[in-house]
Amino acid sequence: MSSPPPKSIRKLAVLFAVVAHLAAIIAGGYFLSPEFTVYPFLASRGFLPYVNIIDQHFPALLFGPISLPSFLTTNPQPLLVLFLLITAGSDLFFFFSLLRRRVASAELWLIIWVVASYWFSGNSLWLETFISLLLAIALFISQSQRPLVTFASGCLFGLIALTKPTLFPALVFLFLYLELTPGPVFLAGLLSPVFVTGLYLLKFDLLPSFLYLTLDFNRRFYVSFAAKAPTLRQLVETSLFFIPSLLLFIKKKQPLSFATILLSLILVYPRFESVHLQPALLLTLFCLAPMIVLKKRLLLPAAALVLAFAIAKNYRHHYGNFYLDAETVKLAGYLKTKPEISLYVFGGNDLLYPLSNRIPPGFTYLPSLPWYWQDDVLSQKMVTALADSFTTEVIVKSSAFLDGANIQASAGLIGEFIKDNYQPIETIGSYQIYQRVLK
Q: What is the pLDDT confidence band of residue 2, given thresholds at 50, 70 and 90?
């Protein structure tokens, strides 16, 4: 029997890489960030970002006029499917972008991307997951000169910058690296997401709260209290991947590649988490691919490495749907049997809001995170909402930890108010249900 033609081998390699990537995520477990479910749910109940949904992120993807609709974000089935589609889309557009650049052994680079992205928390759905897809599409269409494609390219750059403004300097150098033309069509696309979002903020009078949370709060509280240094393992892994790449860019006199990758690493500040490295990983491999020729005989060993790696990692660490744990589902089921009064989750899983079809009191949602509690203005707003709602049930998880520390130690004003005005009436697992004491 004759051997299959090279194109057939390439298609099989690509199919294997993408399927293995998705299978590894499903089998090994995944982290579907609760914000993608909680925020659309609250928005469907009339909550507005910054005023009602207290969050310091910029208004793209999580909330606002270009955010995800609630029917796509129900955990787990629709949100998991969305995550898998985004992952597959990032893989395929990355591969197609290399083909357009006539990179040799593009399928090998795809396998390297699958391994690297999965290793660096590629089983987590967060903002960088979407940014990687948007970047991959932008890289794919970057060589087209058609006006509609140029406009779309500008929109992609604008949406990425709106999602993570700290990426803007890296995008400038990427723009130069791709030799894009800063004409009126591209600029129109670039400004479109910003213009639409600006109108939304003005229409609902959200601008003052938006500026406070994204600028003042981030500067005074988030940078200080949310800071997270890399572990020794993270530092070693990151250095082994990026430092040789950056040195090679210097050696090959590729200043635009060097600047793009170096500036894209800003996403790990101030909280160093591996998922924030996803865009930098994709851009690094995209810039390396034209510089390094990989041997096709490495294809089968690389495929075997992917398979062995996925099996080994999944065997050691199996999470399932990490945030949708059995205890949360059990508690949500219990709450659904009770009258639908407002609910406040203190230090626990915020998925309890959509799972139990409850909303927090006073149209005020404040995440149970220590950096928000450090701000007395935000804490007092939550205390006022609780004080004005005598029927609100409070769910407390006193054993909740973040970054290795018990978050109740940072409870502040809210913790004191609950302690002075509520009493426990029932315990379910590690959660205590509190009821207001009438005085």
A: very low
Residue 3 DSSP label: P
Residue 423: count other Cβ atoms within 10 Å of its Cβ: 11
Does residue 254 fall inside a structural domain? yes
Q: Is the pTM of this model over 0.85?
A: yes
Instruction: Please report whether residue 321 resides in a domain.
Output: no
The alpha carbons of the chain give a radius of gyration, in whole angstroms, of 23
Does 308 share its domain with 344?
no
In contact, 92 and 18? CB cutoff 8 Å: yes
C-alpha separations of 31 from 26, 125, 320, 363 in Å: 11, 6, 8, 27
Flag whether 398 is in a domain.
Answer: yes
pLDDT in tens, 235-269: 998 999 999 999 999 999 999 999 999 999 999 99
Give me the phi and psi of 402, to 5 degrees please. Answer: -140, 125
Backbone angles phi, psi at 354, to 5 degrees: -70, -35
The answer to whether 368 and 347 have CB atoms below 8 angstroms apart is: yes
